[in-house]
Amino acid sequence: MLQRFASGVRRHDWFTVVIEVLVVMLGLLLAFQLDRWRDGIAERHQERTYINRLIVDVEFDIPDIEYAITLQTLRLELVDLLMTVVLDPAAASKEPIVFLGAVNQAAYTFTPVLTSHTFENLRSTGDLRLIRDESVKDVMFEYYGFDESQRQFRPLQLDTEFRHFELAAGVLSHEQEAFIQDDWRMFSPNNFAAAKAGQHENMNVLAAAKRLQARPEFIAWLPYVRDLQLEQIDVHQMRLDRARGALETLNDYAQKIHATD
Question: In this structure, are residues 114 and 231 in contact, taking their beta carbons and an 8 Å threshold?
């Protein structure tokens, strides 16, 4: 080809020169298009892989978020029991184990840790460009962004918990504290029904209820704890709504790219 090209130039055979140039350009263009086609196939495969991984991540998050809502609802019940005992100390004897645990545990909070490895990998590597649908990216930014925005309030939640511990100190006797720590440790959805139904002799629950009544600062603090639990339930519900919405969007997009690719 180079010889024909050189010969054409020497003979001023411009038609041959043009044909040879066009053949070379066409070959380069075809090679370039073939490379782009191969790269496109590889990128579509990567996109499908990332979408499937995001689906798995969000599916993993949803049970944890649902558990958080159940747990904070349980703790709201603990606060309500303490506020009831303030008005009626005899109420402590109806669910003595729950009352004893509630003294310390009513202010506990729990925030699930979302599975964000895939999304962080997409962002850090620049592979987020592989997801062609902008609405999918917007939904994922909203999902993880909301969770991140709520974590700025974590120090305030911890301050509320620590203040509660300070005010609750001494309401339970050493024996009562040891009983909850050793036999129950922490109330959860798995053991709460047993705690509500359980009884314990010689625990002198009424004395603890009267010590609670004698703590005006602790009593004044309980509405703040109750508000904290209500706020946590609301935030977890918003987190759950976003998780379900993100999962629906990802599944719809996964079906779409499966049908078109």
Answer: no
